[in-house]
Structure prediction request, 347 residues.
Amino acid sequence: MPRQPPSLPLERLLYDQCGNRELFPDKLHDYCERYLQIKEWLAANVYRDIGAATSRDGGIYTCHDINHFEAVIRTAGKLIGLDAGGSQNSPLHPYEVYLLLMGILLHDAGNVYGRKDHEKQPYKILLEMGELAGGDDLEKKRIANIAQAHGGKIADDKDTIVRLCKDINSYLSISYRERLIAAIVRFADEICEDRSRASRFLAETSGLPDESEIHHKYALSISSVDIERSACVIQIKYSVSTEDLRKRYMHPNCQDGLYLIDYIMQRLAKMHLEHLYCLRFMKEVVPITRIDINIEILDANNDSIEEIHLRLEESGYPKMEKRLAERYPEVTGEKMMLKYQVRDEQL
Prediction:
């Protein structure tokens, strides 16, 4: 009996596209069916154990169950213009949609081995699946690279998309925009944080380890994340109580503890940098130019007593991260003079 069409817009797009197998590398396989089987395998064998695995690190992280991965899928769909109730027109090619979905399924799956270096585990997980994930380990490695590029460092460098992915790549004569796909995975994950990922009960009953509390309080403070592609804007709304504003929370980078509003500002600074970085690769498909922030302050009765408005966007005159002479040390007057002086003497 054939499957019912998936309900998530990005998954439904793949379902509709898979009717034409000529658009995919391996003409003998249904890529949507393969994807759905992989998702079921991960939900049954990996996602359900992430909480227990990360608890070995001494904390309780925000939720990494199937709901988190499906939330990232929804967010990625909105970023590329898919509407849950309407159009399924896509700026991505069919195989790119498959790679995007696979990258999302695997981006945080490595947490099942523990939080440290979790982003480096997707290839190991794909190999564990065996033939379920396809028979070609080269394809698995490329999918793993897309997933891995969502975070971490390589040789102390956060520019993982460039280090792991090519601008344009191809597999069995099907071309795809590898860095574009990796950037959408990374940015969708970055903005896919809200109160549904926090443990509300433990946070409100002092049941969280001290080192975990601020992360759950941060998630609980996010009331909505709205993507308005027509205006090229993401709107994020926070609601923070005065009680939470007055308290310092344990944080490894602050000996005396950190106020929640300071942590929110740190996370927003990171979000801004992630946006600028990912936009470099995805602007042809995801034309988001700014992020608008609204922080609502609530009193003990949950009445609003103040609203703070922030805007994250590129502004001011640009700066060179490195002087050209540092990036291209061979192009200096002295070195060029010596180079051609030797050349002329040899003629």
